[in-house]
Design a protein that fits this description.
two-stranded antiparallel sheet, globular, 277 residues, single chain, mainly alpha
């Protein structure tokens, strides 16, 4: 109850820190917030060229809409790429949140978790802007996804909880072991290709019959929480289908479990933050 009271008392600080993150994100850049759209679009163009032109692969099955060929894959890609960028930016920003604000941590008492919350909220604003632009593009190409909007917002909220939990865990560990940020950089690259962002999960049907310790390799693959999140975005935005409830329940469990674990580790390590920083 004391912790909840501290969080309530720190709402104004959370708002101010979030505004600082938003204002400083593209400070002194000529294009400003346009970079939020340029970065994922540049990646979409690159992957479309590599897979659609160089390898001449049509990775996005299109039986549900009028989307065809070169048009389909970039939109399919962005439906998964934007949520992935939210995770990657949240993890990278969260790792250094305490170190970057070391002077504040050492001089003033406030719930340190606020720094991670501000990082996630600032990125959430960017994600909502990017997803809004993608949503308009999908509508223009004939994908009327509006009926899924309430559930999409719920999934976005769940992913925000998941990202915050990871940020709490890694930021606390990074105070004690600065190598964490380097390991995480490598881990994110592996995690990206182990998530169905640039390819549909249907391409992995050939591993369904392969087993390890009596369990299908595809089952191991689906243990990745981001697989559940990305699949739900693909199903609702691109394929115009209600997501499997197993995916939704699994993503919900992983989100709150990650938040609880991250908060537990954070609280355990917090007493020596000022000393270590």
């Amino acid at each position: 109850m004391t912790t909840l009271a501290e969080y309530r008392a720190s709402r104004e600080l959370l708002g101010n820190l979030t505004q600082r993150e938003l204002r400083g994100k593209y400070k002194r850049s000529a294009l400003g917030w346009a970079w939020s759209l340029i970065n994922p679009l540049a990646l979409a163009v690159m992957f479309t060229f590599v897979f659609g032109v160089v390898f001449q692969a049509r990775l996005a099955p299109v039986g549900n809409t009028e989307l065809e060929g070169i048009t389909a894959y970039p939109l399919f890609l962005l439906c998964g790429l934007l949520p992935w960028a939210f995770l990657a930016n949240g993890v990278n920003g969260g790792i250094g949140a305490l170190v970057a604000n070391s002077n504040l941590v050492k001089k003033v008492y406030f719930p340190r978790e606020i720094l991670l919350g501000a990082n996630t909220l600032a990125l959430l604003v960017s994600l909502l802007i990017e997803m809004s632009v993608l949503g308009v593009a999908l509508l223009l190409f004939g994908n009327v996804w509006l009926q899924f909007l309430p559930l999409i917002l719920v999934v976005v909220a769940l992913q925000s909880v998941f990202v915050t939990g990871i940020g709490l865990l890694l930021s606390a560990l990074n105070v004690y072991f600065r190598d964490v940020q380097h390991f995480v950089g490598i881990g994110l690259q592996l995690w990206f290709y182990a998530t169905p962002v640039i390819y549909p999960i249907t391409l992995l049907g050939n591993i369904a019959d392969r087993e390890f310790l009596g369990i299908s390799l595809l089952s191991y693959y689906k243990l990745n929480p981001m697989t559940a999140f990305v699949e739900m975005y693909h199903q609702m935005l691109f394929f115009l289908q209600w997501p499997d409830w197993e995916l939704f329940l699994y993503a919900t469990f992983c989100s709150f479990a990650m938040l609880a674990f991250g908060l537990y580790v954070f609280k355990k390590l917090e007493p020596r933050f000022a000393e270590e920083l």
